[in-house]
Amino acid sequence: MRKKNPLLEVDPLCLPMGMRVGHWRIQGWRGRGAYGTLYRVEREGREGSGSFALKLAIAPEDPRFEREALLLSRIQSPHVPRLLDQGVWEHPSGAHPYLVMEWVEGESLYAWAARRNPTSRQVLRLLAQVARALEATHAAGGTHRDVKGDNVLVCPRDERVFLTDFGAGHFRGAGTLTSKLLPPGTPAYRSPEAWAFLRVFRRHPTAHYPASACDDLFALGVMAYRLVTDEYPPPTFPDEPSAKVWREDGPGPQRPRSLNPNVSPALETAIMRLLSTAPVDRFNGMAREAAETLEQAVQSPDPEMDALLFSVGQAHCPRWRTLEGLRLVAEQDAAPREEVENGGNDKRDRAVAKHPRVWPHAPARAWAIGAAVVCTSVMFTLMSESWRQAAPQLPDSPQGVSSREGESVAVGNSVMFVPHSSSVQCDPISTLGLPLPEKPFPGQRKPPCEPRFETAIRGSCWVELKMAPPCGNNAFDWEGGCYIPSANAPRKPTSNPQERR
Question: Which residue intervals make up region (Disordered) (predicted)?
């Protein structure tokens, strides 16, 4: 009998706990983007010395990882996760590059604000840290090109900020990896001049927009505007009717204080400068100047600086926070802050100091892992009514500004961002390319299936995913598509209770 290769059963999208990638052992899955999957790992042989973040390429030989590593290695900032290691994980599907960075235990900026009621002074302090991260990036000859709330992590215990996810970044001398006119990024954060370039050079065969520090600063302004108003400014895409405010002689967006009177004048002034229609008016394209302005505003004695930004009540709408939600978060934040007061804030620096940067060039050979179990009842505990609903709003879309609550992990292009709190998570028993079973699973829905979102296959109901094989993540291959079994969500009984088992 032909011997089975256990590594064939391991899905690069969902590595099991305990598996080794280079010198690093997987502790858990944390998120997935369009280009990479993020894992929490520990250094083999130094167990207990701290956790680190391993970002593994989804596609073999992805050149973005080499460029991201080169950019990160040039940046020196306390607000950018440090690159500690890079290598290649060999898999039968190909060589998957990976990066290892310091671990940041935090929430995305928008999630942090949605669960709290900050003041203008707090927001200025957070924005100043992002500006300092951009200053270091630009000083290294780089641009981030995807500054947004999902790519900024806030540590609740001390409100320390990290700018993450340099997968879309670029630096002087780096090669162009795409043939598109505009670089990768999130459309809602693109500057007016980027869209103007697209309109002028739409049919040019070799033109590429050279993103600059002014683009990063504009994106910082969009992020700040969204942070204090719970709304995005008007879109900059020229074909949108409201985009006329971004013309060079246009008025710019509606001022934040007209939407939220609790925003301090100093904070509003800084945001409007970042959102200037003329690039040169954005702090002369200098992130250092923006950071200094924000830091000076933090020191202002103006009492409006300490007014809470959002109203408190039961309304679930922009610029409102619930009293119960604020109380729960205050309780959650109390313990970490007490740890900081007792000196726990030095643990991060000590952990990273034990792991200096290393640059392996030989491919790392992963240990073979035993064949994964094809299916278990665990799958059904991850299913809920959400599997059968329409696809959620894409992250950072103007219509879905509150779609991500809780701790977030940004990995690569977050168009396919998966928050850590999502119910759709990596199951460590996942395998590559699971064939559709001949018989239904216990508890799986049986025909008649709901025609709007279910498909009847082999005597049971299945939900098709918008992805192509290999499916992974406990999805099953069937005739060129990926399917998950449809399970009844728990609900109040309306008939025989036995039918709900």
Answer: 233-262
CATH number of the domain within which 137 lies: 1.10.510.10
What is the DSSP pairing of strand 455-457 with strand 476-478?
unpaired
In tens, the pLDDT along 263-272 reads: 999 999 999 9
Contacts of 212 (CB under 8 A, 6+ apart): 143, 279, 285
Q: What are phi and psi of 14, to 5 degrees?
A: -155, 75
Tell which of 312, 330, 365 closes a domain.
365
The Cα-based distances of 364 to 24, 49, 72, 471, 477 in angstroms read: 10, 22, 21, 25, 30
Residue 374 in any domain: the answer is: no
Specify the number of domains making up the chain.
2
Same domain, yes or no, for 296 and 353?
Answer: no
Do 81 and 163 reside in the same domain of the chain? no
pLDDT of residue 489: 46
Residue type, 48: G
Rounded-to-integer distance, Cα 113 and Cα 328, Å: 14
Does residue 290 share a domain with residue 229? yes
Residues of the chain scoring pLDDT < 50: 1-4, 6, 358-424, 427-433, 473, 489-501
Strand order in the sheet with 152-155: 107-108, 152-155, 160-163
CB atoms within 10 A of CB 254: 15
Range of the domain at 271: 107-173+181-341
pLDDT of residue 275: 97
> Cα(331)–Cα(325) distance, rounded to whole angstroms?
10
Q: First and final CA of the chain: distance in angstroms?
A: 40
CB 207 within 8 A of CB 198: no
DSSP state letters, 133-168: HHHHHHHTTEE-S--SGGGEEEETTTTEEEE---TT
Its pTM stands at 0.71
What's the pLDDT score for residue 474?
55
Residue 85, amino acid: D
Phi, psi of 152 (to 5 degrees): -120, 120
Whether residues 220 and 135 share a domain: the answer is: yes
pLDDT for position 468? 66
User: Is residue 489 a contact partner of residue 383, using CB atoms and an 8 Å limit?
Assistant: yes
For residue 489, is it within any domain? no
